[in-house]
Design goal:
The structure is a homodimer of 340-residue chains. Chain A has 340 residues and is an alpha/beta fold. Chain A has three domains: 4-56, lambda repressor-like DNA-binding domains (434 Repressor (Amino-terminal Domain)); 61-159 and 296-326, 3-Layer(aba) Sandwich (Rossmann fold), CATH 3.40.50.2300; 162-293, Rossmann fold (3-Layer(aba) Sandwich). Chain A has twelve helices and twelve strands. In chain A, the strands form two sheets. Chain A has a six-stranded parallel sheet, sandwiched between helices. In chain A, strands 7-6-8-9-10-12 form a six-stranded mixed sheet, sandwiched between helices. In chain A, helix 1 (4-11) packs across helix 2 (15-23) and helix 5 (72-87) packs across helix 12 (296-312). The radius of gyration of chain A is 25 Å and the shape is elongated. Chains A and B meet through helix 4, helix 5, strand 2, helix 6 and helix 11 of A and helix 4, helix 5, strand 2, helix 6 and helix 11 of B. Strand 2 (91-96) of chain A pairs antiparallel with strand 2 of chain B. The structure holds a DNA duplex (16 and 16 nucleotides).
DNA sequence: ATGAAAGCGCTAACAC
DNA sequence: GTGTTAGCGCTTTCAT
């Protein structure tokens, strides 16, 4: 391995000078600079980031904890995060918590041990609240929560207008004549799930529609669970739903599609369907799916911007946390009818 | 920051002993071990991985270079990689080359500087061949190429049976009566593109079908390019294709879907369509799409297994490279007819 | 304007 | 069986 010592020797300068020309943090004469640069080139010298980090305490890496890398919604967020981070000289260490809070804690341990400069996480829920408070917040390690929050933790947050989004979606259905509106959301421990349910209920109340337990299913992420949730709705309800809002993951949506298909329930003829998040393929479903969506790449970008800001401007450190909330938008396609 | 010195003091032992109980690499009496463990707990001590890496030369991280994180095919690969890596105590640094070879080189520079223990990459093409040879292969840094290879570089490789896959897909179409089969692939600098084209041509030759330039389009990744490629095929061909194999990305597939939709060309009535890679939603397209596919998660897993093997068993180091090739499989759904 | 040297937190060779 | 200490490659303070 070629080190700064080798460069210094070849250029006949001190290691301090080598360091100075690399980091441009103190004056070096043209003459010496040239010699150093030449030596660097000749030796194909690359500074060792590990050694630098040990000294400076900065690793130029951000830890990223995601519940499911394979999920396209998350991977668009990751794309946004990676993009902004890379442009600003940061790398990301990507970890998959698999919606499992124990795995999540282990990941956090490792990430903290590797001295990431900051963290972005989409938490699995609130189970690690105390751990995070003790090991991240208290130690002033910058963190931003993305898409999902943890109640009671004061930190930067980038989310979307889940209440309004679900409220408007439900209203839209109501205005088109739907009266028996079912919803499938995340479990309530996941903030978007809780908030979307809140928006749904708000709309129902305002529109004076009775709220029925059997129309509300939550929990699960897989398409199997989507299938089962849908099945439960149909089995438990005397009056079958005339529409379903799938306000959880794309996999649950696929499960619902699967159930409807298996039972020959046609969209939108027999049932209206609205999904959440406009993934590239949903407009090519049969029929093209109406969705309530949010700019995913931009959300990721923003999260990265916030951590990096915090990492680099310790002075602002005691400011109160940033809460960014992205507007959601209903994209109307052909998966619902006007039925009145 | 609490260091091993603090622990040593509190436990009244030497730092070597602290290190030994953490790494379990030399005998420590029960008595001392207990004192150390207690001190660690009391101080909430976490070993500093940076310092350890500086000493040991191992970072327990793998660099991962992907052309497009947002692409579900790649993100399933990443999921497999992350899963295997994490189980074995490795983290991954994820970088997006954006199908851009210059960005790719910069990424490699940074990753190497951060002393990753090994690399997994899906190369953008062969432009960085010399760079990789000089900075990775020659320095014996373990690397495995995933999904795409670089010709002339001797390294581990995890790919799929692209020639056979495209060959069988084309044969299937032929057997069902299709005679005017078009194909859209990656550019030829990307090995799967080259090989899929090879398989397609092999089938055509065997079936004594004339090979027409205007039925073959390659290049691009976006849905816009898919749209344009499809448009070109229709514009340039006197006899319109009766079927299209979309052997590139899911985004190009979406572009093709979009073109066909815009021109009211119905699948499979007016045209047969076969895609590559069985993403969760393709069976819910209209109509359910026939695809030639490969187990993505498993491919990622295997790639991780190979790098880690190489990282950890330096002794085998001069073995000849592993070439793993995953079988592809045709999943027949309803996007083609039997037309004879 | 540049060099010498200390020290970041850890591991491991050596000493006892 | 355990402690002492050098040193990983870098940055940065201090001295000149």
């Amino acid at each position: 391995m070629v080190t700064s010592v080798d460069v210094a020797k070849l250029a006949k300068v001190s290691r301090a000078t080598v360091s100075a020309v690399i980091n441009r943090n103190r004056y070096v004469s043209k003459e010496l600079e040239k010699r150093v640069l030449n030596a660097i080139k000749k030796l194909n010298y690359k500074p060792n980031a590990i050694a630098r980090s040990l000294k400076t305490k900065y690793t130029k890496t951000i830890g990223l904890v995601i519940p499911n890398i394979g999920s396209p919604f998350f991977s668009f967020l990751v794309e946004g995060i990676e993009s902004f981070s890379n442009k600003n000289g940061y790398n990301i260490i990507l970890c998959n918590s698999d919606e499992n809070s124990e795995k999540e804690r282990d990941i956090l341990d490792v990430l903290l041990g590797k001295s990431v400069d900051g963290l972005i996480m989409i938490p699995t829920g609130s189970k690690n609240k105390d751990y995070i408070f003790k090991n991240v917040i208290k130690s002033k390690k910058p963190i931003v929560f993305l898409d999902r929050e943890i109640n009671g933790i004061e930190a930067d947050v980038v989310v979307s207008e889940n209440i309004v989004g679900a409220y408007e979606t439900t209203n839209f259905l109501f205005k088109n004549g739907y009266k028996n509106i079912a919803i499938i959301t995340h479990s309530e421990d996941i903030t978007p799930g809780k908030k979307r349910l809140e928006g749904y209920i708000k709309s129902l109340k305002e529109n004076k529609i009775e709220i029925k337990e059997e129309y509300i299913k939550s929990g699960g992420f897989s398409s199997k669970e989507g299938y089962l949730n849908c099945e439960d709705i149909f089995r438990e309800s005397k009056i079958k739903p005339d529409s379903i809002i799938v306000a959880s993951s794309h996999l649950e949506l696929i499960g619902v599609l699967n159930y409807l298909d298996d039972h020959n329930i046609k969209i939108p003829k027999d049932i209206g369907l609205i999904g959440f998040d406009d993934l590239p393929w949903v407009r090519y479903l049969n029929p093209p799916l109406t969705v309530n969506t949010v700019p995913m790449f931009e959300m990721g970008n923003k999260a990265a911007e916030l951590v990096i800001d915090k990492i680099e401007s310790k002075k602002h450190y005691n400011n109160k946390p940033n809460k960014i909330s992205f507007k959601r938008k209903l994209i109307i396609r052909n998966s619902t009818n006007i039925i009145y």
